[in-house]
């Protein structure tokens, strides 16, 4: 066979192989997304307004990149090759550690203290939790906050070399004293996990094991003073190899490796109040006729394995993944206990995603002088029936631990010092009754401990008008 013929055959074979992913989209069934992936939606030729979509070519590119045939298998093969040859992860958000351990890359910043929360963000988180505590107490409920530790915080010995942590404390260690100052109950999970004497997180997953979830339950039950509950951590169980790590699935979407986990011998005593499709359900409701107490628990993905243990300890429970926290669920459930669980790496959510609840009323004595700070406020409808949502930012000289108050008509409210704002500005969010008369809007704050009012407040409306 002539050299040119061989070259043509090789080129033809190469082109055929290159066509498999695109032609296969027409012939092969689509593979589902792996782990936490969100695949691009089909492109649209027109916008919602009916005009031509100028981004259609970009959308086509994104769609093909996410949906080409054999995508997951090819990604897995490439990841396995990179891991074997270069000892690196093919997934940017996953870090390959020692002895086969995988970590969320974003948690390295927490470990190294390279991107700490600001003092204002920490105050905003603590004060917002304090307002939620007040809200719960006014309705006869008790609120406890807890943070699930980052995997890297508990097991740094399995990290690859990422550098030496900078001086300073972890954000959670800086937050806890502020929680005490603000009267927020905090259930510490870091100490029991560090003292457990065994690994309680999966090596290829970002979450704790079932045994780890049992320990978290026991620590929360101790903090809540629950009587007659089961000490789950010491319960016997069977070791089964049935867990597929979320980080492993992100790197190797069609890989088949499984990790060991514990199946406890003792069955749970609760029953679903309505069908549970998945631990990822937005709302999970349970009942346990052998127990008392009514729990409302706001949780994240760490609650996927934690919720059965908590449900076993309460007569009724509602587990919500809503973010921001929808506090109207407290009235709907009549809960006497509220638990907020949030993973360490997402503590910033407390300062950025203001919970949904009516702003508490405050009283003002005297007329405060004007200060040098200015405020911007935008009102919008939605989020809480019968209320207007006000979002704002305060700029200028303000105490780092200053509450923020908004006078709306004749009433003075304290805002949650949480939200999004430009760097250097102090965000705030609050919900006020929609029937309030808009006689005046002004913002009050503290500077050197003195109450001042913003020298200028710019007010605008979006969505429904008040």
Describe how the helices and strands are arranged.
Elements: H1 3-27, H2 56-67, H3 71-86, E1 94-96, E2 102-104, H4 107-112, H5 119-137, E3 142-148, H6 151-154, H7 171-181, E4 185-187, H8 190-194, H9 210-224, E5 237-243, H10 246-251, E6 259-264, E7 271-272, E8 283-287, E9 294-298, H11 303-312, E10 316-320, H12 328-333, E11 337-343, H13 349-352, E12 361-362, E13 374-380, E14 387-395, E15 405-408, E16 411-414, E17 426-433, E18 441-447, E19 450-453, E20 456-461
Parallel strand pairs: 3-4, 3-11, 9-10, 9-11, 13-20
Antiparallel strand pairs: 1-2, 5-6, 7-8, 8-10, 12-16, 13-14, 14-17, 15-16, 15-18, 18-19
> How would you sum up the major sheet?
7 strands, mixed
Distance between the termini: 83 Å
Order of strands across the main sheet? 4-3-11-9-10-8-7
Residue share in helix = 25-40%
- The whole-angstrom Rg is 26 Å
- Structural class designation: alpha/beta
Provide the residue-averaged pLDDT. Answer: 87
* Portion in beta strands: 15-25%
Domains (count): 2
Task: Describe, in short, the structure shown.
The protein is of the alpha/beta class. Helix content is 30%, strand content 22%.
What does this structure look like?
It is built from 13 helices and 20 strands. The strands form five sheets. The protein has a seven-stranded mixed beta sheet, with helices on both faces. It has 466 residues and is α/β, with parallel strands linked by helices. It starts with a helix and ends in a 5-residue tail after the last strand. It folds into two domains: 243 residues, no CATH class; 101 residues, Immunoglobulin-like (Sandwich).
């Amino acid at each position: 066979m002539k050299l040119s013929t061989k070259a043509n055959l090789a080129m033809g074979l190469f082109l055929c192989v290159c066509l498999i992913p695109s032609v296969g989209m027409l012939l092969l069934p689509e593979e589902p997304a792996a782990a936490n992936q969100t695949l691009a939606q089909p492109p649209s030729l027109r916008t919602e307004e009916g005009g031509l979509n100028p981004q259609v070519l970009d959308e086509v590119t994104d769609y093909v990149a996410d949906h080409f045939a054999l995508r997951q298998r090819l990604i897995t093969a490439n990841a396995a090759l990179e891991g074997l040859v270069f000892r690196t992860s093919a997934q940017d958000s996953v870090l390959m550690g020692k002895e086969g351990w995988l970590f969320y890359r974003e948690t390295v910043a927490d470990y190294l203290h390279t991107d700490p929360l600001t003092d204002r963000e920490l105050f905003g988180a603590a004060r917002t939790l304090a307002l939620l505590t007040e809200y719960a107490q006014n309705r006869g409920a008790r609120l406890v906050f807890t943070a699930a530790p980052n995997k890297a915080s508990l097991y740094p010995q399995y990290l690859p070399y990422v550098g030496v942590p900078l001086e300073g404390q972890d954000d959670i260690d800086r937050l806890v004293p502020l929680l005490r100052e603000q009267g927020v109950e905090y259930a510490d999970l870091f100490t029991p996990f560090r003292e457990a004497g065994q690994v309680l997180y999966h090596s290829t997953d970002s979450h704790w094991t079932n045994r780890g979830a049992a320990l978290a339950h026991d620590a929360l039950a101790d903090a809540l003073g629950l009587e007659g509950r089961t000490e789950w951590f010491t319960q016997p169980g069977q070791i089964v190899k049935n867990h597929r790590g979320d980080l492993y699935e992100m790197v190797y979407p069609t890989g088949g490796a499984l990790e060991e986990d514990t199946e406890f011998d003792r069955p749970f005593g609760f029953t679903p109040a309505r069908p549970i499709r998945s631990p990822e359900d937005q709302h999970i409701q349970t009942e346990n006729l052998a127990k008392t107490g009514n729990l409302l628990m706001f949780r994240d993905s760490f609650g996927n394995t934690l919720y059965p243990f908590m449900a076993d300890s309460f007569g009724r429970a509602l587990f919500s993944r809503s973010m921001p926290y929808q506090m109207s669920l407290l009235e709907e459930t009549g809960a006497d206990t509220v638990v907020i669980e949030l993973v360490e790496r997402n503590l910033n959510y407390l300062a950025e995603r203001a919970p949904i609840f009516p702003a508490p009323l405050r009283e003002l004595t005297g007329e405060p002088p004007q200060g040098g700070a200015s405020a911007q406020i935008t009102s919008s409808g939605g989020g809480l029936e019968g209320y207007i949502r006000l979002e704002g930012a305060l700029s200028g000289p303000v105490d780092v631990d200053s509450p923020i108050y908004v006078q709306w008509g004749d009433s003075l409210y304290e805002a949650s010092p949480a939200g999004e704002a430009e760097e250097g500005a102090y965000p705030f969010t609050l919900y006020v009754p929609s029937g309030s008369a808009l006689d005046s809007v002004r913002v009050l704050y503290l500077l050197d401990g003195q109450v001042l009012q913003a020298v200028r407040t710019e007010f605008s409306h979006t969505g429904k008008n008040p």
